Amino acid sequence: MNLSEKERKELEKRSGIRIPEKDVRLLGGINQHLKQAINHEHKVKDYKTIKKELGIKDADVAAMFGYANANSFRTSKAKDKMKKGLELFYHLATHR
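RE: above sequence
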């Protein structure tokens, strides 16, 4: 979507979000950028602690992301990325 300078500034003013003039490519992935954006005075809780605090199991996480069962989530190549993403999401959601 291409916005004129006037439209971009108006949208920034209404949303309170800075919109870059050029397209931005996230190098290193979204998780890396989320880590940089987090206020580092609060420690990010690890996946196991979050599961215990919320009373959820790997089977619940597997269902949320469309895995067949907990074992398919645990053996997934994307498991570590998903865990890190959930840790960062939890941190952002609880420290706003």
